[in-house]
Task: structure prediction
Amino acid sequence: MESTSTPRISSPLVDSYVGQNVMVIGKVQQLRGDTAVIEAEGQITANLNRDAHLVNGNAAQIIGKVLPDLSIKVLSSLDLGNGVDFKVAQAVVDATHQYRDLFVFDAAKGGMMG
Amino acid sequence: MGDSYGGGYSRTSYNAGGGDDAGGFVYGGSQNGSQSGAGKGYGDATLRPVTIKQLIDAEQAYPDAPFRVDGLEITEVTFVGMVRAISPQTTNVTFRIDDGTGVIEVKQWLDADKQDDENSPKNACALDSYVRVWGRVKSFNNKRHVGSHYIKPVTDYNEVQYHLLEATFCHLFFTKGAQGGAAAAANGGAGNDSMFVDGGHGAGGGDVPMSDGLRMVSAKARQVHAWLVNAEGGNEGLHANIIATAMGISVGEVLKCGEELTSAGVTYTTVDDETFAILDY
Result:
């Protein structure tokens, strides 16, 4: 049992999560070496780790830490195929932030962030 | 324990395997015992979609008391998360499940009769894949885990999102009342407690457009509001007694709902404090 969360966010929210672990669900737009560009209400640059198996054009879930330059250092990534409804994904992001109590342990309480 | 239960089959089969659940004998005695007896009956069991954070935040009134989410006792819960670790034990398989809101341990008890089955939990769940879990929250040595009967791999990622939205919906339902609960008024007063089935899904059929004020009031207040809209009380409004008689609920309840609706700005009191009329915009 751990009181740590990786809040689901999209591009407009990245700058409020610098230094924290987050989850992004989006469409892979570009794959160049170990960098990927993920589209989630805007573009997010992701620095992939070795065992990432993302596919261009497919949906992906990445979990990682937001760096000061607003890119994400990926800790875990998952290829989600092409059947993901991004509108629903965005609805979850909205719900996460509107009803934070259900989704996010804040760093002050959880103490495991950063 | 095998022959002593009275109706709670799903718990009993779990208890028989689990052994750590002292509550198993609640069903002890005869068939009648389970109806008149102490403890929560089978009929009170719920299956609630939750986030893992809600489980970690769930409160207990005293040690061993039932867990509460949003002030309501939970029995069975279901959630969707990623498998972060699998550790097979002699009597169970322990998973660490992470849904992005928190991490919790899930123990699935092994059925000695069904060893190496294709459906055995170890085979069903791969590391870092999404699964849906059904189970109950347990507390053991002050550590919370979920005792699960059933874990199923998630094949469509949209189920993950769907689940989180459903959990949010249930939270809002229990804390703020049914969505556009107007249609539920048609059920009359008696069935108020079963609003989820009657009102939640039928809400689309409500003929009263939901105003912003109504979003914040209780389900029952919405029923009163819906009744008032259709009652044509005019500018004078209708007295709480009339509403109570027509809806089959107590005057006290009507007054409480009326107050709630008035403070939400959707009704107002007219000739006296107990007469309510719809505030039309």
In short: Chain A touches chain B at residues 1-8, 23, 25, 59, 61, 63, 76, 78, 80-81, 83-85, 88-89, 91-92, 95-96, 99, 101-105 (CB under 8 Å). The longest strand of chain A covers residues 21-32.
